[in-house]
Design a protein that fits this description.
single chain, 256 residues, alpha/beta, seven-stranded mixed beta sheet, 11 helices, 7 strands, globular
Length: 256
């Protein structure tokens, strides 16, 4: 079995596992590390098949969560961005006794639009799947640009995400397509409604992939969870607004 990339840093007395999004790796968290290491032992993870966690093929959400649990601390806060939010939620569903609290960032329990739910149109994700095999680099770059669209620092933020992608090995088309399939098909709305773990949901007001309406709907569906919407942020609020993002994480854990 291939080894997961798992780096632990920080001086805090609480464990925080941080999971990146589709197509990326743990380097996306570089701008937040100085603001979090005083409060946490950070566990920076490349998801199976991504970045430095090479050697994995297409996995299901459950398989991915099980691999992470096998090497994770006995109990930790779990933070997941975008696709990583689905993985972190699956960890909480599989082993709630191992999770002190859950933090989702620009994530949704159901990424695809439904008659009663805002999200990404299924054909958009399907088109990305088709385009990956035709022009890998351009497709990934297009997806990164969508994540920062509308922010005042969009060009700089996209450059930072692109740097994170290029700094380590890229995922295979097989792995990337499996991730897009998760975004297209997973729906955790009902099953997660029964979860009573402390939960914080962080959103970007300008996010075009996870519309801000999701925040209000989940305030109703999951009334025990908390939500923060960062103005002028898009799909990567921790990059465009690292100070507000880190403050929200710290405050949530301190209250817990």
């Amino acid at each position: 079995m291939s080894a997961l990339f798992w780096q632990t840093i920080g001086n805090g007395d609480r464990d925080l596992v941080m999971l990146h999004g589709w197509g990326l790796n743990a380097a996306v968290w570089d701008c937040t590390i100085p603001r979090l290491t005083a409060h946490f032992r950070l566990h920076l993870v490349d998801l199976p098949g991504y970045g430095r966690s090479q050697g994995y093929g297409a996995l299901s959400l459950q398989q991915m969560a099980a691999l992470l649990l096998a090497v994770a601390p006995a109990r930790a806060y779990w933070l997941g961005w975008s696709l990583g939010g689905l993985v972190a939620a699956e960890v909480a569903l599989m082993a709630p006794e191992r999770v002190s609290g859950l933090i989702s960032v620009a994530s949704s329990p159901c990424f695809c639009t439904q008659p009663d739910w805002p999200g990404i149109r299924p054909e958009v994700l399907h088109n990305f799947e088709q385009q990956l095999s035709q022009d890998f680099s351009r497709t990934v770059e297009r997806f990164l640009a969508l994540q920062t669209l509308g922010t005042e620092s969009a060009k700089q933020d996209t450059r930072q995400l692109k740097q994170a992608v290029l700094s380590h090995p890229t995922a295979t088309i097989e792995v990337l397509n499996a991730g897009l399939m998760m975004l297209r098909t997973v729906d955790q709305r009902q099953v997660f409604a029964q979860c009573d773990l402390p939960m914080l949901r962080i959103y970007g007001y300008l996010d075009g992939l996870v519309p801000r309406k999701v925040a209000g709907l989940l305030d109703q569906y999951w009334p025990t969870s908390q939500s923060v919407v960062i103005a002028k942020a898009a799909h990567a609020p921790f990059i465009s607004h690292p100070q507000q993002f880190s403050a929200a994480v710290n405050q949530f854990v301190e209250k817990g």
